[in-house]
């Protein structure tokens, strides 16, 4: 397996399984002089913790305490790589040993066996959602860098289990269950999850991420477009099956006259482009959405196969969430932050100069 | 600008503007011993040529004759880089000089100015759709390599200007106007384009790409998932605003019980996953769709700005297509081929070993 | 700072400062199924520990206990990234605070200030020789992989402080002081170091690395030649100022007739090429040497500057080695192992297929 | 074969064989607004042409006329990739067909067969010295960029066939036979080459490259040090077997007291470090040397093998140089320029911002 490093100049490399000693990573390329503490990272990790999602989440305890191993001196980054580690607190292997030789539908069990010949069957190893804690930690460092450049990122669901939410107050989404952008939608989200749980089923949703303060000029034309990098970043999250920028798929049904964003002295008159033209940021808000599939671990019996090639039936036990949204929102936010930090440093003009002392 | 190289082991690097001497590129990493001729590449280039789209396309002539400059000896690849060049035949700069200082809505004019400070204003330079000829050439080489491994790729629209097509006969799509997967849909596509042209307007659509014969095990977990690479590849095409794998956005409204693909002795019972689980190919067909926005160059007047910061109105003259679908289908196909060739070589087990003589 | 990741497919990313919590890294791309334990890594780390060098080394204690954080399950690699950490045991900042604002001659103090604006002045941060523990750990994993392919690597000095050693018994060099390839040379090496210490001075040397069992075909032509990658790997070690392959600089004084290696039924009749032709391994032993400069921290007063731009004089206190050879030999070995593991996976034909179970 | 792209941000990708249609490449990442014409590149190409070396060179004619295919508009770079092509003028395959199945000693014939299974046997394909024309073209573009930053590079031999030259007037070396830094050495170089030719033999030499105007701060610590990148760049040239920085191998015999470069108000008192400390430029002149082996094609009979595994004898016919120095000096210069341009863009602080209009 390669592919555990993200970014070209602002780089995150991650490691760790859900049932090993812990997870962590290295952020390489963060400019020197950026104010950074463990607390800046911990606040983001706490947001993806189980329980955040209320009804949507499980009883499982994960105490994700991050430890910085390098790269910070006297409260600021030194420009050297930032190593971090998050120990696994709670790993009950017995919950999983039963499925050692059975491929769970919707999971990566079968494909990991096909690729690697054998795997750590305890909770999915690298294909576990737990892998994302390292992404969130990396995103928090990217946020610290981008904050010194005036860039901020918001993330929230616009849909949970088919129930839509209006984007009324995204600024305070982080404080609400489901990170809902609309106070009124919370109850409906919870009701939808209650139904699913009662049926031993699970639901998905759609997450939207907005980036503010992004100057015009970010992104490299042709293959390495800003939107291409965002799509790569978000589709690389386990449960994501679709990504769209601005008007996205609805643009495919629009016409040029209705889809183009006219320019005026006050800036663009609309934002169907989602803040990106020709793969380069236009100075508008960056708007990207991703489709999150329902969690594959359900309480109902499912037809599947064993590693030995026999048909069987499986009812996935263990403690599982009904809806991934509350845990995936901070991950989507982190991935967008990582892309923006990297594209910032890649940009010739912006260069990523850092404060001096 | 960096970002003009695609892939890690099977790599395509491209260059060229719509109004310079020509376009071309280098394919680096293609294994030795693969049968390859200029004709193999020419056939794909001819498919993206104007005219292919009938009513959808313009009268513009592009005679895209490809020349191989290296890497092939006695009809087979030598394992050395394959350089190719396609001269520009028809470049009437005067068509474009009028817009030298005016930013066309929906185009990259404004963002290129923001990034590079100045630009080749004749037809958009690297942001021109013409840039994609090099992608198609690279994809043809990837196809030649993958053919020796039993992998083939199909591409066709499932929707044009809001008009859907059923996927009845995708195998012969390449022979139909619009690359339609359904003979019956051609007339409806053409009618939709006629309406748009009459209104001085343009339309978009949705393109689907299928890959057959892909073995289980392709793709690198975490950041470099097969679906992440596909999203990166397709979103990097100028007009694409959305990408989805398998059930895609509809998966966000499904439940775990309905979205999971059960496994049986006969293989998977459904393919909502689009042939990818945990970022790794499952052995099923790979299915990916992308949303193509309507062409931004329209015959109607639009509000915009000049480089000097004054408001103005622009009616984009010149000879433009009504619908990008006929030209973008071969590009989508090429990008998927490039991803698969690269992931094939990246895979530990498959290794990309090549025939010997 | 970027540049903390080494390799393209078999990748080592490192972090850590000499006076932070510790050092570590991530090995990404090691094939699945390779037998690996912490002990395999610990044995190499113990070899670079102070004390190993006897007279050449300092009294400083470094108890480099490695902890594997991921990527190994039931005694074998899983194909997922291998995270490791080595805590710093002994960091007396007071030894260094005196030089906070003074640039030590021969050290990176001045250049780090120029690049990053500020630095962790305690022991040189990333420019400290301590950084190399992560390289040695990474090299041990590469060795475990290459052992399954029949490749082994030896390293030893051929010269210390101008005193030459004959390469009589390199197989047992690891068991001798200075990793000497010749029992008889140890006393001379020690005497040379004793003289230097008495003079408050330091010495350097020349390290030779040999790789056995490397099949013909490793290395990528043009920029990414096997010898180019070896030169990059070894010159990237702090104290190294020169690298040569096979006959090296003496080849510049030879003629074609004397430098060419004739081929016979028994293989090559000589090895002036050092086992590499056109950047590709020939199947002979790979032979590479590097020049190690004397340790810059000396007991004599030296003229230098302060960060504030004033001339001053410095006598570097602290506990320093007289000769870097005993500590750098395992590092040179590790870097060659990392190059070979990466080139192995990069090679089309070898592919790096891994054992199955 | 991968490995035909050099650099991370200022990237050169090359293609082409000595006996195909021609050679060329793509420079990706050159900032916009840099003055550049074909003539800027042609002057460097003309310097590596046969004939330049006088007595050292062959009668072979190579008319290396470069054509720019993209990336330049109105006399300046646009920030888009710069494609270039150099057609092969003179390729007499018959000169080479005799050696189709015989491995030439000192050449890459055997290793290419081992790696690729088959090869373009006409003149060595990618392993031919002819491949370097693309490097020289790329270096000329790097020089144009660096000139806008006040950086210049000189290259010249300090030794030819064992005959040393004093570095008296390196500024005018480009105007002398052998690019000699000393007018007086030219006759001795020529006499040495005459002797070698008379004996049907060949000679090598040592090339020194100096970079002036490089600010302090270039280079990325740990693996991607400036000296590591220089070693990679120069060792990647076919005939180079050794690279050293500053005092190089002689530093291995010096002591800390004599090797350290004291710092004074007037700067460094010496330059044993070759302008690099801890992998980062110190603001002094960068000084690097490389060992060039004698040309392996000699007029004397040599023992070798056939592809079919039989012993044989070969006397390489054709028109060959006696000494590679006159042709390799511009290549060494080009590689150093490419490294500096790339490290410049990689540097956080310098950023590579480009002129605006």
TrEMBL record, chains A, B, C, D:
Cofactor notes: Reduced FMN (FMNH(2)).
Gene Ontology terms for molecular function: chorismate synthase activity; FMN binding
Domain of life: Bacteria
Entry-linked InterPro entries: Chorismate_synth, Chorismate_synth_AroC_sf, Chorismate_synthase_CS
Database matches in PROSITE patterns: CHORISMATE_SYNTHASE_1 (PS00787), CHORISMATE_SYNTHASE_2 (PS00788)
GO aspect biological process, one term: chorismate biosynthetic process
Signal peptide segment: none
Catalyzed reaction equations: 5-O-(1-carboxyvinyl)-3-phosphoshikimate = chorismate + phosphate
The keyword Flavoprotein is annotated on this UniProt entry: yes
GO cellular component: cytosol
Pfam families: Chorismate_synt
Keywords, comma-separated and alphabetical: Amino-acid biosynthesis, Aromatic amino acid biosynthesis, FAD, Flavoprotein, FMN, Lyase, NADP
Residues binding NADP(+): 48
Co-factor(s): FMNH2
E.C. number: 4.2.3.5
Annotated positions binding FMN: 126-128, 278, 293-297, 319
Pathway(s) annotated for this protein in UniProt: Metabolic intermediate biosynthesis; chorismate biosynthesis; chorismate from D-erythrose 4-phosphate and phosphoenolpyruvate: step 7/7
Family of this protein: Belongs to the chorismate synthase family.
PANTHER family, alphabetized: CHORISMATE SYNTHASE
Alphabetical list of NCBIfam families matching this protein: aroC, PRK05382.1
Reported function: This reaction introduces a second double bond into the aromatic ring system.
Designated name of the protein: Chorismate synthase
């Amino acid at each position: 397996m390669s592919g555990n490093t993200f970014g070209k100049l602002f780089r995150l490399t991650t490691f760790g399984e859900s049932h090993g000693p812990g997870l962590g990573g290295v952020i390489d390329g963060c400019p020197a002089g950026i104010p950074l503490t463990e607390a800046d990272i911990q606040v983001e990790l706490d947001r993806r913790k189980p329980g955040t999602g209320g009804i949507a989440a499980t009883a499982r305890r994960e105490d994700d305490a991050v430890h910085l191993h390098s790269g910070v001196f006297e409260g600021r980054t030194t420009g050297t790589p930032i190593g971090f580690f998050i120990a696994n607190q709670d790993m009950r292997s017995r919950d999983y040993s039963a499925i050692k030789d059975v491929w769970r539908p919707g999971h990566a069990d079968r494909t990991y066996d096909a690729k690697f010949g054998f795997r750590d069957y305890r909770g999915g190893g690298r294909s576990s959602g737990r892998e994302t804690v390292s992404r969130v930690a990396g995103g928090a460092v990217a946020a610290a860098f981008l904050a010194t450049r005036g860039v901020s990122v918001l993330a929230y669901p616009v849909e949970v289990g088919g129930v839509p939410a209006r984007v009324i107050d995204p600024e305070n989404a982080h404080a609400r269950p489901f990170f809902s952008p609309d106070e009124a939608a919370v109850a409906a989200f919870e009701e939808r999850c209650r139904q699913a749980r009662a049926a031993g089923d699970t639901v998905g949703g759609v997450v939207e991420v907005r980036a503010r303060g992004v100057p015009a000029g970010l992104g490299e034309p042709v293959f390495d477009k800003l939107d291409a990098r965002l799509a790569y970043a978000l589709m690389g999250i386990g449960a994501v099956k679709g990504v769209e920028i601005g008007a996205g798929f609805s643009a495919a049904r629009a016409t040029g006259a209705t889809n183009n964003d006219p320019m005026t002295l006050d800036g663009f008159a609309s934002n169907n482009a989602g803040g990106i033209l020709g793969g380069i940021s236009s100075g508008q808000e960056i708007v990207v959405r991703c489709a999150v599939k329902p969690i594959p671990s359900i309480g109902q019996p499912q037809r599947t196969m064993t590693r030995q090639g026999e048909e069987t039936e499986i009812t996935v036990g263990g403690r599982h969430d009904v809806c991934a949204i509350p845990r995936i929102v901070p991950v989507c936010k982190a991935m967008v932050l990582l892309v923006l930090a990297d594209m910032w440093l890649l940009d010739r003009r912006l260069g990523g100069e850092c404060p001096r002392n």
